[in-house]
Specification:
Helix content: 25-40%
CATH class of the largest domain: Alpha Beta
CATH topology of the largest domain: Uridine Diphospho-n-acetylenolpyruvylglucosamine Reductase, domain 3
EC number: 1.1.99.14
Number of strands: 17
Organism: Vreelandella gomseomensis
Strand order of the largest sheet: 3-4-8-6-7
Strand content: 15-25%
Number of helices: 10
Keywords: FAD, Flavoprotein, Oxidoreductase
Largest sheet: 5 strands, antiparallel
InterPro entries: FAD-bd_PCMH, FAD-bd_PCMH-like_sf, FAD-bd_PCMH_sub2, FAD-linked_Oxase-like_C, Oxid_FAD_bind_N
Number of domains: 3
GO molecular function, one term: glycolate dehydrogenase activity
Length: 366
């Protein structure tokens, strides 16, 4: 592989975006930040003038040898992944794509990660730096393009998962990783108690596992790494072969499970490792265990307080993925403790004094 830099000249509309933000700040006009708009279901609805980043697209710099890519926020996720794949590389955090129009900016703004997250890291772990449009309409760079450059790095990480409430992501630099030499997926028949015990046992060993899920008496495991390591682990674990497309359907919520019945809402329960099944009145068929059991997708008509109390008792939290207008919780995210809410308010007031960036997206008060 040669030390080359790939560039695409699709579009750089940062100046026009800065002008719109500047005008909105002066007139105190709320802005609804839009890319592919495929993640509008995640969080509270935003009322405001559209700030559309879809045309702010293209790869700015890509150095395959250094494993670094810088890309504009409106770039389609599928386009970026295709360029990386051409160089046998990938976004290791496996960002979900909820539609063909999904953008990399939306992936970072929501901070969501796919099945590989417990083994490779979260989205924010791979963000090296960003160019942000501030409340005054200034385009500023934070962080860098190498992990050791820590100047401003925390602010770049802070934008990951902030849902655009603190500023506008214009460009993002990522650490990328090589694609694995070998992959194989397995299906093993067992109940949830045995599956959790099995995963705890396997987690203490240096095995090439990069995804593990359970649903309806079947444990699903993905192996990735060197050819000999994957082959040896496959022979050791046994089980049936599993189509690799299973993991993409799980990542992008295309699996049949992710269609709640009437009267149900889809929830994500985030729990500590090795947490046993929660004592909730939910049929086993309506629970999908991901991330080795730490992330659990639930379809239920139970109320938000019941779910959140059970998660809180286990050291976790619950997020509703069904919009309130479609029967989901009024507050999709777990309410913040008073001290944490104070810090969030102070940060919002510092970076967005007039509250123009996606107001109310995370919480009604800010």
């Amino acid at each position: 592989m040669t030390n080359t830099v790939t560039q695409t000249a699709d579009g750089d509309i940062a100046e026009a975006l800065c002008d719109q933000v500047r005008e909105a700040h002066a007139s105190r006009t709320p802005l609804r930040i839009v890319g592919g708009d495929t993640r509008a279901f995640y969080g509270r609805p935003v009322e405001g003038q559209a700030l559309n980043l879809a045309d702010h697209a293209g790869i700015v710099d890509y150095d395959p040898v250094e494993l670094v890519v810088t890309v504009r926020a409106g770039t389609r996720l599928s386009d970026l992944e295709a360029v990386l794949a051409d160089h046998h590389q990938m976004l290791a955090f496996e960002p979900p794509a909820f539609g063909a129009a999904s953008t990399i900016g939306g992936a970072v703004a929501t901070g969501l990660s796919g099945p590989r997250r417990p083994w490779a890291g979260a989205a924010r772990d791979f963000v090296l730096g960003t160019r942000l449009i501030t409340q005054e309409g200034k385009l500023l760079r934070f962080g860098g393009e190498v992990m050791k450059n820590v100047a401003g790095y925390d602010l770049s990480r802070m934008m990951t998962g902030a849902q655009g409430t603190l500023g506008v992501l214009a460009d993002i630099s990522f650490k990328v990783l090589p694609l694995p030499s070998a992959r194989h997926s397995l299906r093993l028949s067992m109940g949830i108690d045995d599956a959790l015990k099995k995963l705890a046992e396997l987690g203490r060993q240096p095995l090439p596992i990069t995804a593990a899920a359970w649903h309806q008496d079947a444990l699903f495991i993905r192996l990735e790494g060197g050819v000999s390591s994957v082959k040896a682990t496959r022979e050791r674990l046994g089980g049936d072969d599993l189509d690799a497309d299973f993991w993409q359907s799980l990542r992008d919520h295309q699996h049949d499970f992710f269609t709640p019945d009437e009267g149900q809402a889809l929830w994500r329960l985030s729990l500590p490792p090795n947490t046993p099944p929660l004592a909730l009145d939910i049929p086993e068929a309506d629970i999908f265990y991901d991330w080795g059991g730490s992330q659990r997708w639930v379809k239920t008509s139970l109320d938000a307080d019941t779910l959140r109390d059970a998660c809180r008792a286990a050291g976790g939290h619950a997020t509703c993925y069904t919009p309130h207008s479609q029967g989901g919780a009024e507050s999709p995210f777990t309410p913040l403790p008073s001290v944490m809410e104070k810090y969030h308010r102070n940060l919002k007031a510092e970076l967005d004094v007039h509250g123009i960036f996606n107001p109310g997206r995370l919480y009604a008060a800010f």
